[in-house]
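TASK: fixed-backbone design
INPUT:
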C-alpha cells in the first residue's frame, strides 16, 4: 500500500515537472512545431523517472500544448490549439509575461462574460454570497483608508460575484479572467486616487445585486470594465512594463 507521504511526493514531482515544461513551452524555449527531447533525455535533464515524464506528457497533451505520434515524436502545437481556459496554462503565461494580445483577448472575454454573470448573480446570489462580497468590499475600503492589500480584496469581490452566478461554465471562465483582473487592479492602484475613485463604482455593482436588479447590475459592472479597459490600453500604448503576476501585488500605503 502506497503511503500518503509517498503519494504527495509523487504528486509534487509530477506537478513541478509539468510546470517546468509548461513554462518552457509558453516562453518559446520549445517553439511551435519543435520536437521535445526524447524521453530518456528529459529524464536526465529533469532528474525524474520515465513514469513522471510520461504522465507529464499526457497532461500537456490534454491541455492542447503538444501532440504525440509514432515517427513524428512529441511536437509543440500552435497557440490557437492551447486550452486557454485551463488554469495551469493561464498561470504559465503569467509567469513568462502577459502579452498585449493575451490581455486584449481577455478584455474582450471579460466584457462578454462578467456582465452576464453579474446579471445572474443579481438573481441567484445567496445571503452568504452577499456577505462575502460585502466583506471583500470592506477590505477594499479599509485598504484605502488604512493601507493594505487592495488588489486581493478587489479580486475577491469580483470572484465572489462570478461564483454567485451559479453557472458552471462562467465559473470556469472566471479562472481565466483572474489573470486579467489581477493585472487590471494592479494597474489601477498605480493611478493617483485610482482605488478611491473606483470604490463607489464597486458599491454601485454590489447595491444593484443586493437589490436584485439585473439590468442595473449589468450597467454598473460595464462602467467598471470600460474604465479598466482604458487603463490597460493606456499602459499598452505607452509600452510601459506590465505587472508580473508571479510577484505579490503592491500594497496601498497611507501617508
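OUTPUT:
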Amino acid at each position: 500500500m502506497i503511503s500518503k507521504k509517498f503519494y504527495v511526493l509523487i504528486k509534487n514531482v509530477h506537478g513541478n515537472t509539468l510546470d517546468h515544461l509548461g513554462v518552457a513551452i509558453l516562453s518559446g524555449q520549445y517553439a511551435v512545431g519543435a520536437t521535445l527531447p526524447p524521453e530518456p533525455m528529459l529524464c536526465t535533464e529533469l532528474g525524474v523517472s520515465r513514469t513522471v515524464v510520461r504522465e507529464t506528457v499526457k497532461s500537456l497533451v490534454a491541455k492542447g500544448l503538444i501532440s504525440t505520434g509514432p515517427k513524428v515524436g512529441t511536437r509543440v502545437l500552435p497557440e490557437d490549439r492551447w486550452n486557454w481556459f485551463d488554469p495551469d496554462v493561464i498561470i504559465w503565461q503569467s509567469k513568462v509575461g502577459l502579452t498585449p494580445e493575451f490581455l486584449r483577448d481577455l478584455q474582450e472575454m471579460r466584457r462578454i462574460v462578467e456582465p452576464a454573470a453579474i446579471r445572474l448573480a443579481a438573481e441567484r446570489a445567496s445571503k452568504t454570497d452577499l456577505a462575502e462580497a460585502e466583506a471583500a468590499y470592506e477590505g477594499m475600503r479599509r485598504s484605502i483608508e488604512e493601507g493594505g492589500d487592495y488588489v486581493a480584496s478587489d479580486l475577491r469581490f469580483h470572484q465572489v460575484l462570478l461564483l454567485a452566478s451559479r453557472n458552471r461554465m462562467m465559473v470556469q471562465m472566471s479562472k481565466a479572467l483572474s489573470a486579467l483582473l489581477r493585472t487590471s487592479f494592479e494597474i489601477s492602484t498605480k493611478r493617483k486616487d485610482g482605488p478611491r475613485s473606483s470604490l463607489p463604482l464597486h458599491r454601485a455593482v454590489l447595491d444593484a445585486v443586493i437589490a436584485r436588479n439585473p439590468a442595473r447590475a449589468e450597467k454598473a459592472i460595464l462602467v467598471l470594465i470600460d474604465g479598466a479597459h482604458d487603463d490597460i490600453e493606456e499602459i499598452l500604448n505607452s509600452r510601459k512594463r506590465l505587472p508580473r503576476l508571479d510577484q505579490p501585488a503592491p500594497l496601498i500605503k497611507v501617508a
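COMMENT: The beta strands are 66-69, 73-76.
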